[in-house]
Amino acid sequence: MNIVLFSDNGKSEFADIINVDDEINLREFDLSELENYKQYNPSVLILDLDIDKIREFCAVRKLECCVLVPVDRIPEHLTVRSLSYDYIKKPIDRIELNTRIRALLKTYETKKNLVKSAICDELTGLYNRKYLHHRLDAEISRAKRYGTSLSCLLLDIDYFKIVNDMYGYDWGDILLKKIANMLSALVRKEDVLTRYGDEEFIIILPETTEVQAMIFAERFRKDVERMEFIPANEQERHPITISGGVSSFPCMEDVEETSNTIIRYAEHALYNAKQSGKNKIVEFSKMNPGC
User: Fold this and answer.
1) In whole angstroms, how far apart are CA 188 and each of 62, 113, 182?
2) pLDDT digits (tens, 9 = 90+) for 39-72
3) What pLDDT, on the 0 to 100 scale, is given for residue 150?
4) How many C-beta atoms lie closer than 10 Å to residue 149's C-beta?
5) Sheet (strand 150-157) strand order
């Protein structure tokens, strides 16, 4: 976690009396850097500034962190939209300052964990279906606005039920987490990686054509085909393969395409891959000449 301290000249008196764990970073900047605060990923933002500057800064922003404001007196009509915020009156007491900072850090950690549990799958740590639809609708809107490509890749582990039946559900979970970790290592920061079903994963690929999505999918399919998966007490690897369906936006003319539409196209392509022998990736556009 990060504590980021802003002051008029970048030399606040509070920096020397903040006492935090080694795992927590403390960084100090002057007022000129305030507009760039997000790049420092603050958990707690300390604004040792003139109250009018704080009021101006906070009036137009919703801060995804906690805020601490050192003040001479509690200000009137100051709105701070953040995860949590607190005041501390000057002159600053070292023990009180560090107590308030620790409380805000705990609040930040708790609220971030709550948000994560609401949008992430418990087993793999990937995003869940609820978050997927929210992000996919947003990415479709962005693709419409800027005329960019957008692709959806749906993957399904072949014969996953056999793994559960032969080795037990614990080994099925191990396989799911291994696949999730492999995908996490391949996707870009802007991609949206989701656990879609029991053994299904969806990756939303912004600014990616269907051809580019196929290159990504084929690379991963071959990685899975070569992966080492040796359940306990077995002498040899258990062969694992994966099938997939790719769809892109925009696809069908004269169709109002939503997140559900794009996913449904990918599902049709995946079904075709399964029906035609598994361990393959199918493009929806190749199935439907209207794309």
Assistant:
1) 26, 23, 13
2) 888 899 889 888 888 888 887 788 888 989 888 8
3) 95
4) 17
5) 192-195, 200-206, 150-157, 242-249, 281-283
Nearest to 159 by CA among 185, 198, 193: 198
Strands 44-48 and 200-206: unpaired
Q: What global pTM score does this model have? A: 0.70
Q: What CATH class does 2-118 carry?
A: alpha beta
**Burial track 202-215 (b if 16+ CB lie within 10 A, e otherwise):** bbbbbbbebeebbe
On average, the pLDDT of the chain sits at 89
**Exposure of 85 by Cβ count < 10 A (0-12 exposed, 13-18 middle, 19+ buried)?**
buried
The pLDDT of residue 185: 95
Lookup: tokens for 78: 């100051």
Q: Which residues are catalytic?
A: 199
Residue 9: Cβ-neighbour burial (10 angstroms; 0-12, 13-18, 19+): exposed
- Is the preceding peptide bond at 250 cis, omega within 30 degrees of 0? yes
**For residue 280, what pLDDT is reported?**
96
Query: Of 240, 219, 226, 237, nearest to 157 (Cα)?
Result: 240
Token duo for residue 214: 């196929």
Same topology for domains 2-118 and 129-287, yes or no? no
CATH number of the 129-287 domain? 3.30.70.270
Locate the domains of the chain by residue range.
Answer: 2-118, 129-287
Strands 81-89 and 150-157, how do they pair?
unpaired
Using left for φ > 0, alpha for ψ between -120 and 50, and beta otherwise, residue 43 falls in alpha
When pLDDT is averaged across residues 261-274 and rounded to a whole number, the result is: 95
Please give the Cα distance from 112 to 170 (Å, whole number). Answer: 28
